[in-house]
Amino acid sequence: MHLRRPIGHTLRRLSKVLLVASAWLLLVLTGLFILGLGVSVFLGLRDYEQVDRAELDIHNIAGALKLSYAKQGRYPSTAEGLQALVAQGSIESIPLDPWNHPYRYELRDGRPEVLSLGADGRPGGSGRDEDIRLSDLRRPPADAGT
Questions:
Q1: 3-class secondary-structure state, position 114
Q2: Which of 41, 50, 101, 113 has the fewest CB atoms within 10 Å around its CB?
Q3: How many C-beta neighbours within 10 Å does residue 79 have?
Q4: Tens of pLDDT along 129-141?
Q5: If we measure between CA atoms, which residue out of 110, 102, 103, 114 comes closest to residue 69?
Q6: From CA 92, how far away is CA 128, in angstroms rounded?
Q7: How far apart are CA 33 and CA 28, in angstroms?
Q8: Distance between CA atoms of 109 and 57, rounded to whole angstroms?
Q9: What spatial distance separates the first Cα and last Cα of the chain, rounded to whole Å?
């Protein structure tokens, strides 16, 4: 003989199962949200680190330009570029920016301009694609004596 359980018992058991499943789903969704938030914060910090590194590289290149000016009495021309610093021994090598693009150099009105074109490697942009320029970081020296 087969005894049937009352419907109330089955509904209580089903509601407990649904409650546990809902709790697990909430836990998983909360974990995914926290993971996503952590990844976005990490990537944001990484962007800041890359910008900091580009600024440091640009300052180092500016120091080599100042040394070159002291040795040569002038900055390298735009045509000579940053490779002139290596040839003069003012810097060991020209680094790539944090996004693996070459730093740009030009001599404008007797003042050196060094820049990174940002993550996208194209002029302009905003956010992580924004250009980082020596002239925006500080004024380049007019001459090596100051």
A1: strand
A2: 41
A3: 8
A4: 889 999 888 654 4
A5: 110
A6: 28
A7: 9
A8: 23
A9: 105
What's the token pair of residue 96? 């790539």
Q: CA-based angle 96:91:62, to the nearest 5?
A: 75
Q: Which of the 8 DSSP states describes residue 99?
A: T
Structure tokens at 66: 């100042």
Q: What are phi and psi of 71, to 5 degrees?
A: -75, -45
Q: What is the pLDDT of residues 34-88, one digit of tens each?
A: 666 555 555 554 567 888 899 999 999 999 999 999 999 999 999 999 999 999 9
Beta-carbon contacts of residue 65 (< 8 Å; ≥ 6 apart): 75, 76, 85, 90, 112, 114, 140
Residue 123 Cα to chain centre, angstroms: 16
Contact between 106 and 115 (Cβ < 8 Å): no
Alpha-carbon span 124 to 118, nearest angstrom: 8
